[in-house]
Amino acid sequence: MTVEPGGSLQLISLAEFPVIQNGDDLADLIHAALKGNRIDLRDGDVLVIAQKVISKAEGRKVDLNTVNISEEAQALADLADKDPRVVELILKESNQVLRHRPGLIVVEHKLGFVCANAGIDRSNVKQGGDAEHESVLLLPEDPDRSAREIRKALEKIWAQRIGVLIIDSHGRAWRNGTVGISIGLSGLPGIVDLRGEPDLFGNELKVTLIAAVDELAAAASLMMGQADEGYPVVHVRGFPYPLRDGSFAEIPRDLEDDLFR
Fold this sequence. Notes:
This protein is α+β, with helices and mostly antiparallel strands. It has 6 helices and 12 strands.
């Protein structure tokens, strides 16, 4: 499986996408945004969606005033110099705490990946008028399911085979800065296995596994922006690999192969 010569990759941020509320039908809103941007889906297209709009539509916003703080959360909050209400949510969203320092808690999330603060975010979350009712946004409960439901709804409308990718911004070991990565997908490959394929000089590739959805996530994240841009959905044409059924389970490294823990 190789990239076709002379290919091109087109990414278009959907303009005029509305602010999402709990219970919104994202497939309908994406359909309307595509039509508003004069884009008709074609076979092989991919839609990349920011995690925040999924979480908002699925009611994953939590009022911190409703959080009961456990002794474990309070103790970790003291060590990490963080709001104990947020720490309680971090613990509930995680399999285990791996590291902590003032201002940061690194965990293995229940979804299977390692991230900072369980992906809990205050940015781009509309707040109330006082600190007591400050809210945070949790990651979707099942991003693969979310991607699958949106994909099936849009495929029914357009009668085309597409992929849907849900992404978030994460930091990386040994590198500064955040980058877009995949946290859920449907209808496209998570990993492209090139083992057995020839390289430029005819040598057989032995270990090459391409994290295709993470490469696409990083590209789409550039088009979304990280601040007040308001472009949470990106239309992609020219994804260089064949679409297939895929899931996020392809991405996390098995613990026995993880040299960082």
